[in-house]
Amino acid sequence: MTAFHCALALVAGRFVPGVRIETEDGAITGIDQGTHAQAGDVQLTTVVPGFVNAHSHAFHRLLRGRTHDDGGDFWQWRTRMYAEAGALTPDGYRDLATRVFTEMRDAGYTSVAEFHYVHHRPDGTPYPAHDMEIALADAAASAGIRLLLLDTVYLRGGVGAPLAEEQRRFGDGDVHGWLARWHALRDALAGHPLTELGAAVHSVRAVEPTDLAAVAAGLPAEVPLHVHVSEQPAENEQCLAAHGVTPTQLLAAHGLVTERLSAVHATHLTDLDIQLLGAAGATIVMCPTTEADLGDGIGPAPELLAAGARLAIGSDQNAVIDPWEETARLELDQRLRLQRRGVFSPAQLWRAGSATDGFRVGDAFDAVEVDTGSTRTWGADVHQLPLVARSGDVTATIVAGRMTRPQER
Ligand SMILES: [Zn+2]
After folding, report:
1. Helices 209-218 and 175-188, interaxial angle, to 10°?
2. Catalytic residues
3. 155 C-alpha to ligand 1 centroid (Å)
4. 160 CA → ligand 1 middle, Å
5. Segment holding 18, helix H or strand E
6. Where are the alpha helices (DSSP H) in 244-375?
7. pTM to 2 decimal places
8. Within a 10 A sphere around the Cβ of 300, how many other Cβ atoms?
9. How many other β-carbons are positioned within 10 Å of the β-carbon of residue 14?
10. What distance in angstroms lies between residue 149's CA and the mean position of ligand 1's atoms?
């Protein structure tokens, strides 16, 4: 048993002084409030649940600070991104992802959903033993971050088009080939305790409609499923032209809009799309720094929340890795869009960041210690830290009960 004494900790939506958290094998077994530290306790200051990074492409980090003089649009940026994808090797991917995941951990993310599609050699032939996927699991283990590996089905280069040359290493022939590899991969990851296998459909551009139903039927019901949805108007236009409905409606027609769905971006939605996602209780992954960087637009986050959807944050292209900046932008983007303040309550921002209202018995002890007396945070109401703190204010991160201090910055 390891016990952590927190001078201040977030429990059931409020900050409570003197919280002693007992853990066993990294899980919370007891929470005492208003109490003193005992001999042998790990002593911490202000502690909140770890942030959940619900959308990442680790290798996009290679483009940070290198595309700002390109101008252009999302599609031009994508050409640069494909060049980086084409050059990845398993060893290079492991090293790169270790650095990226370490930056995440130090910023306060305790888990990352890696949306992974660089599966095969550049010519499309498989590696012998899931080499790229194992490289990511190894990187998460090295960095000490929880990994939800979202192995992604990516079969088409656009609506009705085969994969382009630079996309060949993403593909698996057909949806049954992808499903077979997915199930084999689950067995191969058994020795990685911090890694869980989830699934993703790259987008409605990347599969045929019949593939969507095969994905829904072929995956175990408990497996999380993520999809890029309506990030760009062009995706909606192509989907409407080919199928007569929006991407969200196409997903719904094939049984994918359920509580297990995480819709990534959801920037350009119709009222019906919002109703479908909300009624299903789906999660919407907003990636504010990426959506700003790529000029995507500002999605209808408050409307989705009001309709019944849950909100989450993602670092996506990793041009910025800072969960506090994502939560702040989640609110500030809506202020610009709606021309009013206080769109989300602080409690809603904490929940979007960490998928919880505070520490609970039975959960893994994944936590962040934050400096409330830094040059940025002094004087702030702790409930409002998602608007004012930044990654540099993180003084420790704890994943499954194991604590690390940020590396030299
Ligand atoms: Zn993405």
Report:
1. 30
2. 265, 316
3. 16
4. 21
5. strand 14-24
6. 247-253, 271-280, 288-293, 301-307, 323-338, 346-354
7. 0.97
8. 23
9. 12
10. 13
Residue 333 CA, ligand 1 centroid: distance in Å: 19
Report the CATH fold assignment for 51-354: TIM Barrel (3.20.20)
Ion ligand 1: residues, CB within 5 A, are 316
Domain edges within the chain = 2-49+359-404, 51-354
d(CA 154, CA 298): 26
Ligand 1 centroid vs 202 CA: distance in angstroms? 8
Tell the residue number behind the tokens 């199930």, with chain if given: 183
CA 228 / ligand 1 centre spacing (Å): 6
- Scan for tokens 């109490």, then name that residue: 35
| Residue type at position 46 | T
User: Tens-of-pLDDT digits for all 409 residues of the chain?
Assistant: 999 999 999 999 999 999 999 999 999 999 999 999 999 999 999 999 999 999 999 999 999 998 888 778 888 888 889 989 899 999 999 999 999 999 999 999 999 999 999 999 999 999 999 999 999 999 999 999 999 999 999 999 988 899 999 999 999 999 999 999 999 999 999 999 999 999 999 999 999 999 999 999 999 999 999 999 999 999 999 999 999 999 999 999 999 999 999 999 999 999 999 999 999 999 999 999 999 999 999 999 999 999 999 999 999 999 999 999 999 999 999 999 999 999 999 999 999 999 999 999 999 999 999 999 999 999 999 999 999 999 999 999 999 889 999 975 5
Q: Report the topology of domain 2-49+359-404.
A: Urease, subunit C; domain 1 (2.30.40)
